[in-house]
Amino acid sequence: MKTTKKNHLKNGFNNLKINKMKITIEKTIEETHELELPAYKKNSCHYYKILNETTSIVVCTLDKYEAISRSTAASALRLAPLESNKEEFIEKFNKIMQLLDDKG
Fold first, then answer.
1. What share of the chain is helix, strand, coil (3-state, %, to 5)?
2. In b/e form, how buried is each residue of 10-25, taking b as 16+ CB within 10 angstroms?
3. Contact at 8 Å (CB) between 57 and 51?
4. Rounded to an integer, what distance in angstroms lies between the CA atom of residue 104 and that of residue 91?
5. Percent of the chain clearing pLDDT 90 (strictly above)
């Protein structure tokens, strides 16, 4: 029997070895949480005090970029995934405030 190109391809697909591969699928989950205000959040160099639904205070402790400023609550929640507390925030706030005062 003469093998045609079409039959050869068809037989080739029938004899394919089935392989497996792993894939990762990211899902977005929306949840509602209540925060007791003021709430305190942090990341590696920012410490946030969330004052209300719209406003927070951020203390930046990054070397040569030290600052204290007003920010949004949304930024604090998006950029600072770690829990903090009042004592830690006050410690960082006072340290950076003193550093800024010394720079004059």
1. 35, 20, 45
2. eeeeeeeeeeeeeeee
3. yes
4. 20
5. 75
Q: Which residue has the higher pLDDT, 31 or 45?
A: 45
Alpha carbon of residue 75 to chain centroid: 10
Cα separations (Å) of 75 from 51, 58, 62, 92, 104?
13, 10, 17, 19, 29
Q: What is the SS3 assignment for 66?
A: coil
Q: Which residue shows structure tokens 């070895």?
A: 17
> Is pTM, for the whole model, over 0.85?
no
d(Cα 104, Cα 2) in Å, to the nearest integer? 92
- Contacts of 56-63 spanning 24+ positions with Cβ under 8 A: 57/93, 59/89, 59/92, 59/93, 59/96, 60/96, 61/92, 61/95, 61/96
pLDDT digits (tens, 9 = 90+) for 2-42: 556 566 556 666 666 778 889 999 999 998 989 999 999 99
